Amino acid sequence: MANKFPAIIKFGYCDFRESHQEPITETKGTTSSYTRHYSNVHPEKHAEYVAQKHINFNRKQIIIDTFFTKQNSSYGLQHLDQIKITDSLVANLIVGCSLPLYLVENSNFRKFICDMNNKYVLPSQSHLTSQLIPEAVKEKRELISKQVQSIGHIAMTVDIWTDRRMHSYLACTGHYFSDGKLQNFLLAFPPVKRRHNGQLIADELNYIIEQNQIRTKLGCVVTDNASNMKKAFDVLSELQANKSENESRHIVVADDEMWNDLHEDQLIVNEAIEQHATKRLACYAHSLQMCVKDGLTHLKTANSLLAKCSKLANLTHQSTLFHGNFESKFGKGRSIPKTNATRWNSMFVQLSSIIRLDPVKLSDLLRGDHSNLIFLHNVRWQCCVEILQPFAEATDLLQGDSYPTIGCVVPSIVGLHKCLNTLSSTVKYHIPLVNGLLSSLCDRFGGLLQNVKILPTGDKIKKNLNFSSMLYLMASALNPSYSLLWLEEDHPGPDDVKRFVREHIATLITVEVSAIIVKSQTTEDLLALSTQNLLPPTVEEEEPQEQLDQNGGASSDVTLSCKRKSTLFASYTKRRQRIEMRQQNIVPLLPTTIATAFMEKMVSIASSTYGEEAWVKAQSAEYYNIMIPLIEKLLYSSFFCTSGAHLRKGFHQLIWLTISGQSIISDTISLLENAIGDSIELASLFADILAVADTETVCIEDKSCREQFLSLLSAVITVVPDGVLKERLDPETLESAGFIQSQKVFNQKLVRTKTKLFYKQQKYNLLREESEGYAKLITELSQDVSLSNQASMLENIKSLLGFFNLDPNRVLDILLEAFECQVDEDLFFIPLLTSYLSHCDISGFCHLIGFKFQYYHQSVDSITPQSLYKLAASLLRNNLLEMSDIYPHLHPTDSEIHSLSEKITAKAKEDAKKMNAIILSVSLYC
């Protein structure tokens, strides 16, 4: 058997084998023979072993985690916490806070991170530059690319930006809506190292648009009014038009003879190209700033004033001595803000802050070394601030990032035009400034003012800044913060002009929605735009006729015809199977009228909410329940392009088309379900039109029209609730249509309901009806109130009011009686009455006091107690009662006082006459 050491020997003394030359055999695994042998044969070693055994190393017990992780070790590179903190460092500190990269090398920052988490390892600056930030940029680009692919429409803002080191960049920002909220992201930020001409900007923009594949999604681009930007979009339109032409040359069609049948209508082709061309809009904030600068040039003293303001602001920021004196005069922490050359409102804020300072203190501060900065005519500069105040408000409104600012353009321009016209006739100073601002506003925004019919259409615009786009009108109408309030409140035109503008905006929205529907077609249909409303449909002989049902109507559903897509080329669509709606079955539910109803809803929302609060309300469930069905109806009705002016007219015409047999009932109901949907307002409106048609069909001798109307009425139950129909229609009609069983029973129920609503008197709780409640109330008030608490007493009174259903006016009467009995306890009763009146909101409080005075005036012998006068005086002193309210109830009345005064005067005159006679007789006698 081979010799083996037991397990315990392996932990024995290291040089045991060397001291004991022969191996130890131990087969049972015990340690007794080993210890005995060690002590007998090696006593010195054994003594040393025993001595070491009793040494106390004072070590803590080792836990199991020691064998797996090393104490105070750092995170690994792949540790989740290491990755999470590093990503947050890059995204939130370096990028979000714009902190320098060398921050990670700073010893204090490293110490701070170590105190926060000693296991985290900060990356180096080179690692940030070479790997982490490029990876973050790549991930962000991929995320933006996914967002761009998922959205349907996008807008851009483009501007050339220069940093402090004079490096130029072309910043392109994308904007879109998601779940009712405005979203934006940086689409591209390429450096611009060459001359900033139009060709360079156009090439960069074209590359960005093609790289992100947004050419068909891009609605418009907002830029400043620089000449290179205008030139860039002229070049960009040519580039996109050339690309569209190249794409059209490579179209492969199945019919080689199709090209012989093409309509060579250049107008339609140009319109198709425009749908794919990028539209440029001028920056409203930049244009408004230029308008203010134009106006200030008409103010002769403006330059000297602004120079003084700038010099004064520089003194507060550069001179420590002057800043100290300034704070000692106006308070610690006070200063004057500096101006920014690219933001005119910074000049306005600076001027406003100086005007608000105490002129006496400011003159004392500037007197001496800075006497040339003393401001004179402070009232005139205050007037200047008031003139520029509306422009500052408009500029601040444009700086919002949580709502679309394009909807602010039309309301603010129309409001500024009205404000300047008002100031031109009311302002006392700076009339040239007002006229200059008004002139510049009309020059720079003349196209917009012409569109809203404020300026004549024939007037020539001096500075065309492309504000004549109809997009501004639609954006303001679709914005719940403004809707058409600006048209009702600020437009100076008459009612017929306002009505024309309103209908024009509704038509614009309809056309735009139709274009959106066309853009959402399939790739095959995007070979050209739909011209369903531009070209008459061609009817081919080989085309199969429509199958008609027994009623003479088209058997296909109306919605199938609405969903059918057509293209620009009529000959290309002739080989497709399509179902066309017959002209007599096209129901004229007018897009214009539905858009008008849509904007009426926007007015109702905007009338109660303004600014960002309107968008908060617009994102609510209530808003979606009301507005989204209207928008869907607008989209649906855009297929029916007929003439008309009002929704009621469309409903009325629809009913009579059905009654006359030109439209079958099933098609009418299908269209109404899509048009009305869940809208209670439109259902109520349609019920009113049904009531009118009911009266009209009764008067017609043709019974078939009446029968057709009753059939339509029976089918309308799926669109209009039966409760609304029972409320609007005649009982006889309801019985004929099957909504009620008996006209007589319905009339009886109607009479009982009206009796309960209008003729049944309400019962009031008199004193005898709730005697227990009033008894408890009198008991509460009869106690010693000096020891009571007003709050607890008020709670007891409110509990008695609710439990016994007491009348609040009678309770107030009892409170006043108790106060009159203890009129000196006004410290208790006045707060009690104040709290009670604030909770109960009783308007006839003064009449209760008046009735008390009138009670004592009923008889001549009665005397008004002094306590009642003290009660009224106490209420007057504590502003619970007005003298004008109680005066009519006092006695004697004014007429009685005048009559009494006349009697006293007459008696005095009579007595004087008698006295004069006596004196005269005495003097004669003497």
Explained architecture:
- The protein has 926 residues and is mainly α.
- Helices cover 58% and strands 4% of the residues.
- The protein contains 41 helices and five strands.
- Strands 3-2-1-4-5 form a five-stranded mixed beta sheet.
- A hairpin with a 5-residue loop joins β1 and β2.
- α16 packs antiparallel against α17 and α35 packs across α37.
- It is extended, with a radius of gyration of 45 Å.
- The N terminus is likely disordered.
Main sheet makeup:
5 strands, mixed
Computed Rg? 45 Å
Instruction: Please give the share of residues in helix.
Output: 55-70%
Distance between the termini: 181 Å
Task: List segments where confidence is low: pLDDT < 50 over at least 5 consecutive residues.
Answer: 1-21, 66-71, 247-276, 519-590, 635-645
> Kindly state the mean pLDDT as a whole number?
72
**What overall form do the CA principal axes indicate?**
extended
The number of helical segments is: 41
- How big a fraction of the residues is strand? under 5%
Structural class: mainly alpha
Major sheet strand order: 3-2-1-4-5
Q: How many strands in all?
A: 5
Please supply descriptive tags for the structure shown above.
5 strands; mainly alpha; 41 helices; 5-stranded mixed β-sheet; disordered N terminus; 926 residues
Helix-strand blueprint:
Elements (H helix, E strand, L loop, with lengths): L15 H4 L12 H10 L1 H11 L26 H17 L10 H10 L8 H26 L3 E9 L5 E11 L2 E8 L9 H15 L5 E6 L3 H23 L16 H11 L2 E4 L1 H13 L5 H17 L1 H11 L13 H12 L3 H8 L11 H21 L10 H18 L4 H14 L1 H6 L19 H7 L7 H5 L5 H25 L38 H6 L6 H4 L17 H16 L5 H7 L2 H17 L9 H13 L5 H12 L3 H19 L4 H13 L6 H7 L2 H7 L5 H17 L11 H11 L8 H15 L3 H14 L4 H15 L4 H12 L9 H12 L5 H4 L7 H32 L1
Parallel strand pairs: 1-4, 4-5
Antiparallel strand pairs: 1-2, 2-3
